[in-house]
Amino acid sequence: MHDQQIPAFRRGYRLQWEQAQDCHVILYPEGMAKLNESATAILQLVDGVRPVAALIAELDARFPDAGGVGDDVKEFFGQAFEQKWIVFREPA
């Protein structure tokens, strides 16, 4: 993954608030995965249009006290890709 790749949810996967779980979850054909606040903040920005670098910039602006979230965001996207929640597209 590089900064200009565009993350998008894999077909059949979506982010949703789940009242019964009292948290956001990723829903997919085989089930669901509960998300913590950090994962939710990242995945709420995934729109299939903006590249990783833009998402990192927005999160850095939103959480200035974190001291830069780029490495954490990239690590999370690597895990989300391995879990098959997201795919990466090359910019047009």
Secondary structure elements and pairings:
Elements: E1 6-9, E2 14-18, E3 23-28, E4 31-34, H1 37-43, H2 52-62, H3 70-82, E5 86-89
Antiparallel strand pairs: 1-5, 2-3, 3-4
How many alpha or pi helices? 3
Strand order of the largest sheet: 2-3-4
Measured by DSSP, the beta-strand proportion falls in 25-35%
Please mark out the parts with pLDDT under 50 across 5 or more consecutive residues, or reply none: none
Which radius of gyration do the C-alpha atoms yield? 13 Å
Shape: globular
Largest sheet: 3 strands, antiparallel
* Element-by-element helix/strand order: EEEEHHHE
Number of strands: 5
| Helix fraction bin | 25-40%
Rounded mean pLDDT is: 94
Descriptive account of the structure:
- There is one protein chain.
- With 92 residues, the chain is of the alpha+beta class.
- The protein is built from 3 helices and 5 strands; from the N terminus they run E-E-E-E-H-H-H-E.
- Strands 2-3-4 form a 3-stranded antiparallel sheet, with helices on one face. The protein has a two-stranded antiparallel sheet with strand order 1-5.
- The protein starts with 5 loop residues before the first strand and ends with a strand.
- The mean pLDDT is 94.
